Backbone:
């Protein structure tokens, strides 16, 4: 394939920049601009000089010969001094000598097309790069290392054997016991279905690892929502004043607590208002309540329950929620017949208890991050569809003909192949690799 080139490290001032080429003839392009005293050999780091225009940059070259490279093609990497201008000059020199600028994810796409990685493993690479927590990183490593690939291939192998046995019954009925074949097929489908359900059972934990917990902080004006947000974050993020209606828009911030992301949304104080800007903020507060995984309903412990408080409690009664009584530094006047956490957002008292309650509400401590966990929506959708087909095939063993069962098993094999990329459409594959950064 034609040689492509891209900067594989972030552009900016730094110690080292790496410019990577892959494809036919990339070593020839490299030797036009790079000189050294040693012979360039695969998998050796060579010190030399990069010549281009008035630039003579002392740098390192590494050559990987096909097929023993990341992409399965010849690869040449230049490791030069960091710096935006110098890096772009090296890149431009390689382009002017015959390389084309790579598209996002094109190196990994070529690795996939050349059989170096499966599609699910490639998506694991994206997850490793984008990981923000240890749990995300481990889930990405498990995917990248082929744990899902192994499971899918095992299932596909069982399905292929079942199809072969069924087709034998159809083609040579005189040499096969159809009843025994159907019994064996039914056992195979049951085993496949059990494994699919087992894999899909990890998707809830996967959603938690990937997206975190979205928490809306709601309450009437001046109950201390913004102070609570600041206390939870451990920094002064939201403006805090004694003036009602200070927060007129939602503010979203994220913390990592015990390896789980918690996404806090500080909302505008909910009350009746004629101010058009404040009303927009209040409408967004209502939307945040509906979309949140859990709601922190903040009440002022130093005052009686108001109509606005009652309205909020009624509005969130069917949501997963934690009731927070703020201002414990003042005399307590509020009585409520529900479980609550008494805090002082101003002094930071019992803030850790709030975090722990959020964490425990989603069984965050019961997630085993050492095993395979489904975090990718595409994989979950494909396995869910495969489960539906397997259930239909299992039912068909008692109610349909052998050819229909065989057809459904072939459909099941194809659906599982979408995970590895064997049967996925080109447009989906292109969309997946477009999510990669340039140079990967």
Residues:
């Amino acid at each position: 394939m034609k040689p492509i080139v891209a900067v594989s490290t972030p552009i900016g001032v730094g110690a080292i920049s790496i410019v990577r080429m892959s494809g036919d003839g990339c070593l020839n392009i490299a030797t036009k601009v790079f000189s050294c005293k040693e012979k360039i050999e695969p998998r050796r780091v060579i010190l030399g000089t990069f010549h281009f225009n008035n630039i003579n940059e002392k740098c390192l070259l590494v050559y990987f010969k096909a097929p023993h490279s990341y992409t399965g093609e010849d690869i040449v990497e230049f490791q030069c001094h960091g710096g935006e201008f110098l890096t772009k000059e090296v890149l431009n020199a390689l382009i002017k000598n015959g390389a084309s600028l790579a598209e996002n994810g094109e190196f990994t796409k070529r690795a996939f097309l050349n059989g170096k990685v499966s599609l699910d493993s490639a998506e694991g690479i994206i997850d490793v790069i984008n990981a923000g927590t240890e749990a995300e990183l481990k889930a990405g490593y498990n995917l990248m290392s082929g744990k899902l690939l192994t499971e899918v291939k095992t299932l596909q192998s069982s399905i292929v054997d079942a199809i072969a046995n069924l087709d034998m019954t159809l083609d040579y009925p005189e040499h096969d016991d159809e009843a025994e074949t159907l019994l064996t097929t039914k056992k195979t489908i049951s085993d496949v279905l059990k494994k699919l359900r087992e894999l899909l059972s990890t998707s809830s934990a996967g959603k938690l690892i990937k997206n975190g917990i979205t928490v809306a902080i709601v309450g009437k004006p001046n109950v201390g929502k913004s102070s609570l947000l600041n206390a939870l974050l451990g920094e002064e993020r939201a403006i805090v004043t004694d003036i009602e209606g200070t927060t007129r828009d939602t503010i979203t911030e994220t913390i990592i607590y015990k390896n789980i992301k918690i996404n806090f949304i500080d909302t505008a104080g909910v009350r009746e208002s004629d101010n058009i800007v404040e009303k927009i903020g209040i409408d967004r507060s209502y939307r945040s309540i509906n979309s949140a995984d859990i709601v922190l309903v903040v009440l002022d412990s130093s005052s009686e329950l108001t109509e606005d408080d009652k309205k909020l409690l009624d509005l969130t009664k069917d949501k997963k929620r934690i009731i927070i009584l703020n201002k414990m530094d003042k005399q307590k006047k509020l009585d409520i017949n529900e479980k609550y956490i008494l805090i002082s957002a101003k002094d930071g008292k019992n803030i850790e208890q709030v975090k722990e309650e959020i964490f425990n509400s989603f069984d965050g401590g019961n997630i085993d991050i050492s095993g395979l966990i489904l975090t990718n929506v595409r994989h979950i959708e494909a396995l869910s569809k495969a489960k539906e087909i397997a259930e239909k095939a299992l039912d068909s063993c008692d109610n349909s003909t052998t050819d229909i069962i065989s057809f459904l098993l072939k459909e099941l094999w194809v659906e599982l192949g979408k995970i590895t990329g064997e049967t996925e459409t080109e447009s989906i594959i292109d969309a997946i690799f477009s999510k990669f950064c340039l140079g990967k």
